[in-house]
Amino acid sequence: MNDSLSATLMHRVNVKPIDRTFEVQQDDTILAAALKSGCQLPYSCQNGICGTCRAKVLDGVVDHAGSSMAILSNEDRQQGYALLCQAKALTALTIACEVVEATQDIPIRRLVSRVDRLERLAEDVMRIRLRLPAKESFRFLPGQYINVVMPGGIRRSLSLANVPDDNVLELHLRNYGGPFSQHVFNVMKENDLVRLEGPLGTFFVREDSSKPMVFVASGTGFAPIKAMIERELEKASSREITLYWGGRRASDLYLSSVAEAWAKSHNITFIPVLSEAHPDDLWEGRVGFVHRAVMEDYEDLSQHQVYACGAPIVVQSARQDFVALRNLPEEEFFADMFVSGQKAAQ
């Protein structure tokens, strides 16, 4: 078969248990084809790192392509699991996967915004407020992210740190020294134009549950969790909320005063954790790894939901240990992850 015919070969994918179907071109990933068709499957990084798009192939054959063994083991593959953002269909497929109805009618838009305000929250963390055109509406769910589109088509993904507002978006950026960070910290100024696309991802609070929620953030992983908790407070949710926020030093918890105010005024427990506390921090709180602090406090997570965001090692460790050692149902772990490339460190 020549290349042109191969490129147009299509396979049908049936999603159980709701019997949603879509077509996938041989050279497309299953996730990309699903999103093109309007079938909203769970996803986040789109780079095969976070594991959010993991699903079971009930029938058919896939090419696992770039799927990492660290995220999708040989045992997982033998049991039929695949990462939909990496896997390509070699035959017609039947997969078992949640369809995320909450994002079905929220369009992905491409807009031009302006920098409304730049504010250093720490030496290496910038809060960016973007103002949208006056007559534009931008719908999103707290927890989702956008891509900032740089010259040359380079995309930098940043989580939205505020609840939906008429025309303002809030982002938190840590300076890791890359081109976008250097631009924001050294060049960007108020009123600059910023092109964006979104909202993206399926990291948001599942409102069909009344289970207690445990939020786990590391560093600027606090950004989407801030938006999610603010939304719960806005709607006067009765769900129990516990927030663990981890960093190396006290300065990494750059909006700890916000979380402390939530704890004083609302039914929220806030537990900050430092892994490399310095004497200069005068730290009297918890120390160690943030996901380990959760495990010290909870012998059993079987009746909880967990929402985690931050560095890959934090999210991956939390997922693995909470499920294996604390009885958390795998389907009750929701995560976003900061990785290099398209879904970049934030």
UniProtKB/TrEMBL annotation:
Keywords: Iron, Iron-sulfur, Metal-binding. PANTHER family: NADH OXIDOREDUCTASE HCR (PTHR47354), PROTEIN RFBI (PTHR47354:SF5). This is CDP-4-dehydro-6-deoxyglucose reductase. The keyword Iron-sulfur applies. The lineage of its organism: Bacteria, Pseudomonadati, Pseudomonadota, Gammaproteobacteria, Pseudomonadales. One of its GO terms (molecular function) is 2 iron, 2 sulfur cluster binding. It comes from Pseudomonas lini. SUPFAM superfamilies: 2Fe-2S ferredoxin-like, Ferredoxin reductase-like, C-terminal NADP-linked domain, Riboflavin synthase domain-like. Residues 11-103 form the 2Fe-2S ferredoxin-type domain. PROSITE patterns: 2FE2S_FER_1, 2FE2S_FER_2, FAD_FR. Residues 108-206 form the FAD-binding FR-type domain. It holds the Pfam family FAD_binding_6. Signal peptide: none annotated. Its cofactor is [2Fe-2S] cluster.
